[in-house]
Amino acid sequence: MKDNTLMTYSLLSHLKETNDSDHSSIVAIFFPIVKKAIVEFANESKCTSVRGKNISEIQVKISEYFGLDIPSAVLDFILSQISKEISDEKVFAYYNDKGFVINSFIFSDIDEEIDSEYNNLQILKNDFEQFCQLHNSISNFDELIRFIISQKIDLFADKNSTDFDFNYIIPKYISNKFSDTKTFKIISDIYLGSLMSSYLEFNINKPVSKSELLIDTNFFISLINLNTHESYITCKQLFDICTKMGFRFSILYSTIEQVKFLLSSRIQDFANKDIGLTNEADVFGACIRRNIDKTQLERIKDSVDSTIQKFGFDIIHATRIKDLIIKAKKSEKYKELLVIRKNQKLSALNDTVAYYYVLGKRGNSIQEFSDVKCWFLNNSYHSDYYTGIGFKLHQRFKISANELLSLLWLANPSQDSINVRTLAKGGLSTYIAKYRKNKVPSIKVIRDINSRAKSALENGDIVEKDVYAISIRMAEGQLTNGEASELAAAPDEDFIETVKTFSKNDEKIFEKLNQQQEEIEKQTVLLNKLMESEVLKKFEIASNKYISKLEKEVELNFAKKSIKINNVAWLYLIGLIILIALWFINYNYSNTINPLLATLIALVLFISSFFIRFVEHKTVLKCIKFTFLKRSRLIIKNEIIEDLEKNYRIMNTEPHIEDFR
Q1: Burial 451-468 (b: 16+ CB within 10 A, else e)
Q2: 559 and 492 co-located in one domain
Q3: Helix (H, G, I), strand (E, B) or coil at 93
Q4: What would the pLDDT profile of 387-413 be if each residue is shown by its tens digit?
Q5: Which of 439, 473, 497 is at the close of a domain?
Q6: What is the per-residue pLDDT across 44-100, written as a single tens digit (0 to 9) for each?
Q7: I need a labelling partner for 120 at 20 to 30 A (CA). Which of 27, 131, 218, 357 fits?
Q8: Three-state secondary structure of 51-80
Q9: Distance separating alpha carbons of residues 370 and 208, to the nearest angstrom
Q10: Is the C-alpha dihedral spanning 76, 77, 78, 83 positive or negative?
Q11: pLDDT score for 416
Q12: For the ranges 112-121, 158-167, 221-230, 280-289, which has the lowest average pLDDT?
């Protein structure tokens, strides 16, 4: 697959995540892509005004630049909306005859995002290549992408992705990256974007809700957290969302019997719980993961009926579908499923009854996904599941939990309760489980190998880590059914030697990992030192700037304040001298001077005696000391500078070293 198509998948996911458009459809996500194609079309012509005869010209440009095919009817709608948004024919005009004119207008909405997604794609390529080198495996990036977009193929294409012709390193890499937030986001963006790229051909014109969902055994097992953790999260999320949207859940009486039979068989065989180490999708796998013992599993089995009641499932008893059961037993479908299920009559009949029940409830004149009134909801990977793939989606009678969750997300893009990362993880986990179920050895072979490994362990021929190495290989599909069968039948010496070889190879990988980790830690320490040095440098520069500015500000304000203080001191002294002089004249010469002048002097002295009460003499005295007494001036100066610095720090935040980390 070309890089531009993968970039588009990631870009679509990013645009969906950051979209704040009022449009209720995912179609709005494609607006920036069409705008970018218009720009590229205009740039190619190198003219200030570009005329197009038909939208097919833009379709070609979208296909060339983004690797995306947008149907004409959808592109017609998008271009109409863009024209309304611009609302200026001098800039961009779109006409009823599907012609258009572009006049010197540049869209640059997503240029940075496009560059970013190309960079992310290169990050994924490099990371996958390093992972393959570490595990001495060939790096096939196209194969990785084919695995990631498997659900797009199964949901929308006329073929299916069930050949499972993948190197074991592919699902191993993806499952390993579930805990790597950065890398998994790139993977999940490609996964989600691939689904969105098919949305335009996914015909939904009416709200999707109020259908009946007939659940199968594995969906119920997953819902009570006795499958993989990802299956539980997916089924729980789907159940919560569908319940809110008005879907009705139902379950056949025979499915309940199957659930109880499955749990009973695992209880009876609990001594072989270690099988769960190899098959994490088995009930035993959940028991190991959740640390469930035999007694706890028995309690879960005994509470199946009350759990069904708690979930509010409608139980379809045999009395309600007598004719349907008779029809199912006589059908060719039942014979077909008997072969597939290796003559397990209970399982084959249950699914045959479910098939006819769903067909009867689906409704007539089904034209699209939302017309379907009933689905057989599963979370299993039986080979008969794939018989529906290749048909149009609304023509199928079965749908998996993750498929339905994905379709509800596409049909209801504003559905905030759907966590897209969980959606991606659930979908990818489903395909990892499908791959491993297809590749993992049979229960008989696993038991044979485990028995021989335990015997060799007891004899001291191998150690615990050797047993672990063989278990991991079977669990990940690295040791396929045929290879495992040969190992199980091998002579003791060959068996022990092979197991030890596996363990030694794993040790080499672990050594490489440890070396890489040590190197990473060294680089991290060095980087932290450099970063700390850079932090200190930036902090020092900021601190110096702050102190320099503080000193200048304090110096300036102190100069202003000094002038004011000196003015107050001099004015006070001059005023005081004037008042003393006036008092002296009034006291000694009031009878000899002009009466009017004597009266004026007396009035001034009277008014002065009134206002002098409001003078802060301590402050004035401080000003006088500052102006005329050198020793006092130094003390007062320090006090003033301290206050000015304090006020500056209150008004201006001082830099802290944490601000630069």
Answers
A1: ebbeebeeeebbeeebbe
A2: no
A3: strand
A4: 444 456 667 788 888 888 887 877 665
A5: 439
A6: 776 667 777 788 888 888 888 888 888 787 888 888 888 888 777 777 888 888 788
A7: 27
A8: EECCCHHHHHHHHHHHCCCCCHHHHHHHHH
A9: 5
A10: positive
A11: 56
A12: 158-167
> Are residue 532 and residue 550 in the same domain, yes or no?
no
Q: What is the dihedral of CA 324, 328, 331, 336, to 10 degrees?
A: 150
Q: Which residues of 25-62 are buried (b: 16+ CB within 10 A; e: fewer)?
A: bbbbbbbbbbbbbbbbbbeeeeeeebebeebebbbebb
CA dihedral 353, 356, 358, 362 (to 10 degrees): -170
What length is written for the chain? Answer: 661
Domain that holds residue 642: 543-660
Query: How much of the chain, in percent, has pLDDT values that exceed 70?
Result: 89
How many other C-beta atoms lie within 10 A of the C-beta of residue 489? 11
In the listed set 412, 439, 466, which residue is the last one of a domain according to the structure? 439
Q: Domain tally for the chain? A: 4
Q: Are residues 513 and 646 in the same domain?
A: no
Residues 60-71 pLDDT 10s: 888 888 888 887
Which tokens go with 40?
Answer: 């590229």
Question: Helix, strand, coil proportions of the chain in percent (round to 5)?
Answer: 70, 5, 25
Q: Are residues 409 and 431 in the same domain?
A: yes
Give the pLDDT confidence score for residue 648 in this predicted structure: 87
